[in-house]
Structure formats: C-alpha cells, structure tokens
Amino acid sequence: MLTSFWSFFAKCSATEKFLLASWLLIIILIPFHAVISTWGGVSIGPLEVWKSWKEVLVLLCLGVSLVYLIQKRRLAEVFRDKLVWLIFAYVLIHFIAWAAFRPEADAAIAGMLMNLRFLGVFLLTMVLLTFTKPVQLLRLGLLAIISGGMLVILFGLFQATVLPDDFLRHFGYGKETIAPATTLDNNHAIVRIQSTLRGPNPLGQYLILIILLLVACWRKGVKLFLSGWLLAATYLLFHTYSRSAWIGMIVAGSLFVVLRLRSDTWRKIILGSGAAALVVGAILVALALPHSTFLQNAILHNKHGDKDKGSTSEHWSAGQRSLERIAEHPLGQGPGSAGPASFYGPEEKIAENYYLQITEEVGVFGIAIFIAINATVAARLWRRRQNIWAAVWLASFAGITVVNFFLHGWADDTIAIIWWAIVPVFFYSQREHEQG
Predict the structure, then answer these.
(1) DSSP three-state, residue 270
(2) pTM attached to this predicted model
(3) Are 367 and 358 contacting, i.e. CB atoms less than 8 angstroms apart?
(4) Which element (helix H / strand E) includes 308?
(5) How far is the C-alpha of 335 from the C-alpha of 279, rounded, in Å?
(6) Mean pLDDT across 188-212
(7) Average pLDDT score over residue span 171-184
(8) Residues 6+ positions from 332 with CB-CB distance below 8 Å
(9) Domain extents in the chain
(10) Please, are residues 415 and 197 in contact by the beta-carbon 8 Å criterion?
C-alpha cells in the first residue's frame, strides 16, 4: 500500500503534495499533541504558539486549497455539496455572533478555533478528494490512526503499571499547563489514566473509535495479535473512569453489532443477551453500591460517598446554569462565551454539555445548523453502512454524540480532528470509479 502511495505522491504537483502531507501530519501528530505542545511550550515557548500549530496549518491549507481549486476550476465541484453550504452558514453565524455580542477577544478567537477547526479539516479532506482516490486516502488515514492508537495504548499501559503518577511533569505538565495526573474526585488511591491526551475523559472518547477500529481489523486480520491490543484498550478505557465514555462505548458497540450482523436471529440473540447482562449487572451494582466506596467513587464520582460532594452533582448544576443562560440569551453571547474557550475570558462557563455550549455561544440558530450538519453526516454514513469502516464511523459517531451530552467532547482536538478528517471519504466513494 505504501509503495503505491509513494508512487502516486511522486506524481502530485507541489501544491497537492503540500496539502496531502499536511493532512497526514495532522492525523499522525494529533494524538500526541498535548505532550508535544506542552513540552515545546514550556521548554522553548511561547506555549500558545505550540498549542495552535494545527489550527494555523489547517487555515494555511484552506487558503492554499482555495487558490488550487480556482486554478483547477474545481471550486464548483466542492461547493456542489450542501454540507459545504451548511458549514459556511455555521462559520458565518459565528462571525455574526462575534460582531453582535463582542466577547473578549482572546476567548472569541479560542472559541472560533475550537468550534470550527474540525470542520476545517473536513473541508481539507474534501479538497484532497478532488485529486486523490477515496480508498487510497482511507487506507492511509486508517494506517496513521490505528498506529497512533497503538502508541497511545502502549504509553497508557506504562502509565497504569510502571511509571510514576506524575511522570508527565518531565514534559512540562503542571499547574500552569495540564495536570500530570488526575485522581477520581481527589481520591489519590484511584488515579485516572490519560496517556498522551489532555485528560482521562478525552482519552476515553478517543478509545471508543480506536476500539471499534481494532474490532474491525480483528475481523479481517491477525486475531491473536489484535486481541491483545483490544484487551489493553478496554483496560485503559475502564481506568479512565470516564462514565460518559463507558456509556458511549456501550452505545457505539451495540450499534456496530446491529450494523455488522447479517442474521436478524443472531442480532436479536446478541443484543438480547447484552441487554440482559446490562440489567443484571446494573442490579448487582445497585445492591453493592451502598457498601462499596470504590463503586461510589467510580460510578457516582462522589467524594467519600457524599452525593452532594462530587462531579455528579456538579454536572447537573452546570447544565442547569447553562439552560438559565440560554433562556436569558437565546441568540447566544458570542464564540468563546462558554465552554473551554471561556477560560480565556472574564468568566468561566462550563455547561458539561457540548450542545448547550454551542447554544450559549451562537444561539438557537447556530445549534440548529450544527444539528443539521450532524444529521446530514449521520444519514450519509447510514447509506454506506455496509462498508465496515463506514459502520465504524457511524457507530463511533453515535457513541461520541452521547459523550457530548455529558462533556465538551468535540472541543477536544484529538477525537474531533481524527473523526472529521476521515468521514468525507465515505461520502465520495463514487469518485473511485470516476478516477480509476
């Protein structure tokens, strides 16, 4: 595969080589972005420049892409897709909200980049598909993602077993950057694994995609070898103690089973058995919960079993406050006024829900456009569900969507960029025939 790719790459123009190499570089490095940017930012500086390398590269690629499409007279080919118009409408409403509500500049810029960067990568992939065969781009992307995922799993295993809890402090992690270790509601006996990502919750939702990819490879490849990686990934997923990721994995895994089983009988048997196992497990956990400090920490995230002191109550409170702000400002308050970008502004507003965050920033019209983008993507993946990789992307999309109801999932650069960088490949498979 790599031989054929290099042969193709050698025939590309300088502009095409730059766009393709940049796309691949982003996919390869993004699982390790937290470590690279923190280490580089602290050791060399400035930190914000290191943190924004990917956004700068995406913006540069989009500018080069526009010139390229005009020169090749392919601009209409890209803009023929209604998804592109929805994305541009989403970008436009961000600028309108910025101009109308004038949030603090640093927060607004951070909000724009966090909300739009993965859609920028999506558009870049669409440009690559004007001169690259979809199957070629898919294979290249999958190789990079799965290889990166294995390295993330490997480091996570070392982190969980032999490395000191604060090992990442050697890479600049600390109070001013990223916590080198995260505990479960300040219970230092339970350390949450984060590997090379920004934290345990981002690692958990990232592993949803990686686990499904490993399952798909297992069905096609060396089962014993891949079984080891699957067990390791599942072990790490559990030790993130990310309840949203656990729920997302259950949703994604169940949908993947439904999509891939050819027999209705076996589908019903497996799903029925799974549902029964969940019910029995839930009953057993409920019976053991009052007597187990570990379960109270792991499942309820309560501090010392106190239901009023833990992240569960904080999640609910954050959502309620967000809904109150939306009721007061249904048209939003501008990009950066909520979510992780609000850390750069005068007031931190964390909704613990990505969809509430977007509504707070760009209002009911903005979230309506974003939902339309998501619905269009999901519908197109559904039409391609017979393809195993499309099934992986559809199932992981369902799981990550669930995560976003509990966290600011798409605000995490790793999973957002990787997932949205590949998905256009499934929409334009017909070009394989047109170009082949």
Answers:
(1) helix
(2) 0.89
(3) yes
(4) strand 306-310
(5) 42
(6) 94
(7) 91
(8) 97, 101, 359, 360, 361, 362, 363, 366
(9) 13-430
(10) no
